[in-house]
Amino acid sequence: MSTEVLTEEFEVLESIYPTELSIISDREIQIDVEPDETIDGEHPFKLQLSVHYPDTYPDSLPHLTLVAIEGELEDIEHDTLLESLTEVGEENVGMAMTFTLVSHLREQMASLVRKRADQLMAEETEKERLAIEAEEARTRGTPVTVESFKAWRIKFSREMAQRKAKDEEERLRALSPKDREEWKRAATRPTGRQLFEKNKNLEHDDDSFVEEGTVSVDISQYDRSQLRAHEDDDDDGVHFSDSD
């Protein structure tokens, strides 16, 4: 490589990148590179491209390294950018290629900015969709099936029984020993419903109280004519006199 050729390329680069270029040695430079596009007026990240020129340059590729000096660069993004730079360098072997490499890097960084922005928008859209679905599910409620209702009723009954037992326990603790014993005795007495369940055939048991030899009369056995005959007999037995 002719030193004059590389010196000439450095001079061109200094005129294009007056503040971004740093000449490390006669065979190495560093250029701070920002993407062509911004987000909210600011560059999301800045890279430093280090270029080390071999003796065979420009007939062979320079050695390139990338370092993020502002923002973050993921490993996969770093590798993708270097691979892209290598492909462009191979296409320009035999010519001064540093400016071409830097221009291509700026374009790829701009594409990365757009990709990040699209990904961020997609994530926000997905979050909003999930939030809407969650709100709809909350307001819509869970459909009730026979199985889910039975499960709820069992759980509800168990909770109510536990709550009742707890309330009774607290109420007992607040009572005096005497009142506590009275409450326990009252709790063991059968309720009216229990008495009714036990003696629901009382109407049949009443027959035992009827005196022996008593004849039951079924009025339905008498027809209307018999009733009139009895009434006429009663009338014949009644006499009125003028003296009365």
TrEMBL record:
Species of origin: Suillus luteus UH-Slu-Lm8-n1
Extent of Basic and acidic residues compositional bias: 225-244
Positions of the RWD domain: 8-112
Listed InterPro entries: GIR2-like, RWD_dom, UBQ-conjugating_enzyme/RWD, ZC3H15/TMA46_C
This protein's name: RWD domain-containing protein
Listed PANTHER family: RWD DOMAIN-CONTAINING PROTEIN
Region entry Disordered, spans: 179-244
Source lineage: Eukaryota, Fungi, Dikarya, Basidiomycota, Agaricomycotina
PROSITE patterns membership: RWD
Domain of life, per lineage: Eukaryota
